[in-house]
Amino acid sequence: MSKPVPGPRPQRAAARERPEKWHRPPMRIESNECISCDACIAACPPSLGAVFRRDGGLVIFPELCSGCGLCTGPTCPVDCIQEDPDWSPTSQDLWPLALGPADPYTDPETRLTLDRVRRW
């Protein structure tokens, strides 16, 4: 597992593009296997902030995901997060989650709750 790539998350979210220097593929959540425990949100470094809760479960924005893998393995209790080498851009209707009022990486109250998520 590589270390997460630090960077200006707001600029990446505004550009809606994945940095070319990220050579590892982003991760993807298999929604039919996910139990929505939020462990992946808690594990994703705030400097990346790629995992979001949406209606029907959780989603990873590939443009914000460095592919570091901190959300996989022992973090995910059902092992439903995989590399996505054939990723597609995030749907335009989901982008308001990033940097909006529901962004778990910018809201201090949500961050405190996520910091208490049990590591499986």
UniProtKB/TrEMBL annotation:
PROSITE patterns per record: 4FE4S_FER_1, 4FE4S_FER_2
Tagged with keyword Mitochondrion: no
Keywords: 4Fe-4S, Iron, Iron-sulfur, Metal-binding
SUPFAM superfamilies from the UniProt entry: 4Fe-4S ferredoxins
InterPro entries membership: 4Fe4S_Fe-S-bd, 4Fe4S_Fe_S_CS, Fe-S_Ferredoxin
Composition bias type Basic and acidic residues, residue spans: 14-23
Residue span(s) of domain 4Fe-4S ferredoxin-type: 25-54, 56-86
Start and end residues of each stretch annotated as Disordered: 1-23
UniProt xrefs under PANTHER family: ADENYLYLSULFATE REDUCTASE, BETA SUBUNIT, FERREDOXIN III
Protein name: 4Fe-4S dicluster-binding protein
Natural source organism: Streptomyces asiaticus subsp. ignotus
